[in-house]
């Protein structure tokens, strides 16, 4: 199966999503958060840097649970029609 190339907006959304997760992670180590979510630190690093702009739903759900961020907040913060704000997630 051939994947359709991502649009510039989809790549930007992936980068924004990564920034949001990084902010939510705060001072916790990448290894700690990744282990708690059941993903590899490399996977989390790729998501946080935007190199994996379309992570699987269950990966996102696991990270959201560990970081105590609602999926609704993440979705709203990365919505196409909304203005992205680095402070979009409540601390």
Task: Describe, in plain words, how this protein is organized in 3D.
With 91 residues, the chain is mostly helical. The chain has five helices and no strands. The N and C termini lie far apart (40 Å).
Map the helices and strands.
Blueprint: H1 8-25, H2 30-37, H3 41-48, H4 57-67, H5 71-77
Give a concise summary.
The chain has five helices and no strands. With 91 residues, the protein is mainly α.
Keywords:
mainly alpha
Portion in helices: 55-70%
Low-confidence stretches: 84-88
Average of pLDDT: 87
Strand content: under 5%
SSE order, one letter for each helix or strand: HHHHH
* Main sheet record: none
Q: Structural class, from secondary structure content?
A: mainly alpha
Radius of gyration: 13 Å
State the distance separating the first and last CA atoms: 40 Å
Number of strands: 0
Number of helices: 5
The 3D shape can be described as: globular
């Amino acid at each position: 199966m051939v994947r359709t190339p991502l649009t510039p907006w989809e790549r930007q959304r992936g980068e924004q999503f990564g920034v949001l997760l990084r902010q939510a992670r705060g001072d916790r180590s990448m290894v700690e958060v990744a282990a708690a979510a059941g993903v590899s630190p490399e996977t989390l690093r790729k998501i946080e840097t935007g190199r994996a702009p379309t992570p699987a739903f269950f990966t996102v759900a696991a990270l959201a649970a560990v970081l105590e961020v609602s999926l609704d907040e993440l979705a709203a913060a990365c919505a196409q029609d909304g203005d992205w704000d680095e402070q979009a997630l409540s601390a």
